[in-house]
Design brief:
By secondary structure, the chain is of the alpha/beta class. 45% of the residues lie in helices and 16% in strands. The longest helix has 22 residues, at 85-106. The termini are far apart.
């Protein structure tokens, strides 16, 4: 039996062939979740607001008023009286950091070229409406509201909607409401879970549908996003949170243990792992995990996550360690090695944090980067959320007569190759008298 805070330790050459698959939800469990979520989505489509009230009671033990799903401005004003000024200031600080980073990002996307009479420009235009999902339940996440709403605001989205579950009395966490106000959100609804995703996708009497849904959530929320993605855009599959630490002999085992525990406190399905070339560091991390977890708040959730999804892998070389990291493609990757910056160029992750003073908590709350990131290996093909996810790229092309004439022969070759003769005739017609 594993002790509190203990994780499995593997030698890389002894890893089971299906080890990476084991770290993900098993296929049967995934099918069961999908089946449950499909039924929820269909009921929301059929019964609208009534289904939202029913599911809130069933899943969140919350008694909601059918006519009060939308949070009113008075409740948001009242929320300011229920939270400490320091927390309000911290949210404002985070909002400004994210806002500055996202505005800078957009300055890199202004593309214009003009060669031989043909001018091409790419312009960005905001999506008409977005739904930001902000998890609740085990804990409130006003930071997620900042990370989803601020990039949308920077992009110029005219309608920003937030859905977040309420407590048993039907109240949304006051700090989430304050964050919504600080970030300029247009609508807030006291609805969570897969049913909230269905409402955002297909609409109800109270909640108008949106063009895109963003934000992380549990396995049911993630499944709902994937299922509705055939009808409405989503950001990415962002499920249970992950941290992976890549370390060599120089790493501080105590700091690694604290970072793994901080990740595990998100919930029992969080993933916290270490891949290292040092057996000494691996054993010391194991020892420190037990010590830190034993005295940690939220200890039951931490121990559950570490025992189920915590791991340490000892590799024979850094090249082997890098290969395993890239196979896993974690949401957060901390690199605690002597040459962290050089290694970063070889690594795949949703977010890479370099050195002992760059923990996940920094990127969550203080660096200005976005913590809505791909999980479950999707970092191999998805990026973290940004203002670009709330925009459409439109190319504008303008050619002079001379410019078109210079390229028409090349166009003719391709239209003949693809057997589209009328494409070239449309070009040729412009030069006939």
């Amino acid at each position: 039996m594993q002790k509190q805070g203990q994780v499995r330790v593997w030698k890389s050459d002894a890893l089971p062939a299906d080890w990476f698959k084991r770290q993900k939800a098993d296929e049967k469990a995934t099918q069961e979740v999908d089946c449950t979520v499909k039924a929820i989505i269909n009921q929301v489509k059929a019964d609208g607001d009534g289904a939202l009230v029913e599911f809130a009671l069933k899943f969140d033990k919350a008694e909601l008023n059918l006519r009060a799903l939308k949070v009113k401005s008075g409740e948001i004003k009242e929320a300011y009286t229920k939270v400490p000024k320091q927390q309000i200031s911290a949210l404002q600080f985070m909002k400004e950091k994210v806002n500055a980073f996202q505005k800078q990002l957009l300055t890199q996307t202004d593309i214009k070229t003009a060669n031989d009479g043909i001018a091409v420009q790419t312009v960005l235009r905001p999506i008409e409406s977005v739904g930001c999902y902000v998890p609740g339940g085990q804990a409130a996440y006003p930071s997620t509201l900042v990370m989803t709403a601020v990039p949308a605001k920077v992009a110029g989205v005219p309608r920003i909607v937030v859905c977040s579950p309420s407590d048993a009395k039907g109240k949304v966490n006051p700090l989430v409401l304050v964050a919504a106000d600080i970030c300029g959100v247009d609508e807030v609804y006291r609805v969570g879970g897969a049913h909230a995703i269905a409402a955002l996708a297909y609409g109800t009497k109270t909640i108008k549908p949106v063009r895109k849904i963003v934000g992380p959530g549990n396995k049911y929320v993630t499944a709902a996003k994937v299922l509705v993605s055939t009808d409405v855009a989503i950001d990415m599959p962002a499920g249970p949170s992950e941290v992976l630490v890549l370390a060599d002999e120089s790493a501080d085992a105590r700091l690694i243990a604290f970072d793994m525990v901080s990740q595990a406190e998100h919930g029992g399905d969080s993933v916290a792992g270490l891949i290292t070339t040092s057996e000494r560091v691996a054993l010391q991390v194991q020892e420190n995990l037990a010590k830190v977890a034993a005295s940690a708040e939220r200890g039951d959730k931490i121990s559950e996550a570490l025992s189920k999804y915590g791991f340490i892998i000892i590799c024979n070389s850094m090249d082997e360690a890098i290969s395993l990291v890239n196979q896993f493609a974690p949401e957060h990757l901390e690199v605690m090695t002597a040459n962290a910056k050089a290694l970063a160029e070889k690594l795949t992750a949703g977010l890479i944090l370099l050195g002992p003073y760059s923990p996940v908590a920094l990127s969550d709350y203080g660096s200005g980067t976005n913590h809505v990131l791909p999980t479950g290996g999707f970092a191999q093909s998805f990026s973290g959320l940004s203002a670009l996810d709330f925009m459409r790229r439109v190319s504008i092309v303008e050619s002079t007569r001379t410019g078109l004439e210079r390229v028409k022969d090349s166009i003719k070759v391709m239209t003949e190759a693809e057997n589209l003769p009328n494409h070239y005739k449309a070009i040729q017609a412009r030069f006939e008298k």
